């Protein structure tokens, strides 16, 4: 309890199902012997029947059993049966063209599925399925295949549909990415979803989850640095970051040694470089990070620099949290921040 807010604050968060406390506070209900996330949809207990814990292990040591509705022992999404069912199907057949009719045929309400996926992943299931199909088309283009073949591999009915989806992702149509280039873009799969890596022979310039809303803006700015010469393909740097990402998620390598090129102002680069010194398993507040770079009054500027980081994970902006310990915003989605911090707990241990 020493690391938790007052019981009154926690109870108010429980009533509001406040997601800011995900991963940092749990409630044990003495009348049922069950412990839950504060976001659990179950009926709320009376305040005198609540005990508060900072982690699931403490609740279990105190004799409470995990709730089967909110699944407090794993990442939030893993406790949602609809989400786990559909993500498993997507993994089995990423090229499938899903529709709301498919969901209805499975006995699922499309609006319920949409809300569940947006709550956990920041996007709908159909958007995730479309991104998976786009990945197939991108891989075909990278190999130099004809545009129509890439279109079919991506599962789109028309060339314009594929080009429009591609343009939304990269900021320009695919035919402009097939010539000579200074930087090369390729797809990297991770346990938390697909990422776009852009690198040359010397350094990594961008690493972003494909569903990040600011990805097109980041690609546009990066394109401006090289006069639009971003093509499809990979270099040894891409192979290196892919290998290091796999080792990171497998629990074998907490730090990344891949060289990076940081495109930003002098202040932004100072923030990003400082982020790289935070060990896996540790976090900082925005104010703490501002103090570490010698500018204690620049908390808001540090937060903006954190939000504009274009090299996710390698420059670990997910390790910055609110002063009260809440996860706060993360451009890659709070569900990913929750999972990343959980992965790094093992490194801290």
UniProtKB/TrEMBL annotation:
CDD domains in the cross-refs: ATase
InterPro entries documented for this protein: Ada_DNA_repair_Zn-bd (IPR004026), Bifunct_regulatory_prot_Ada (IPR016221), HTH_AraC (IPR018060), MethylDNA_cys_MeTrfase_AS (IPR001497), MethylDNA_cys_MeTrfase_DNA-bd (IPR014048)
Pfam families documented for this protein: Ada_Zn_binding, DNA_binding_1, HTH_18
Domain HTH araC/xylS-type span(s) in chain numbering: 106-180
NCBIfam families reported for this sequence: ogt (TIGR00589)
Protein name, as recorded: Trifunctional transcriptional activator/DNA repair protein Ada/methylated-DNA--[protein]-cysteine S-methyltransferase
Organism of this sequence: Paracoccus marinaquae
Source taxonomy: Bacteria, Pseudomonadati, Pseudomonadota, Alphaproteobacteria, Rhodobacterales
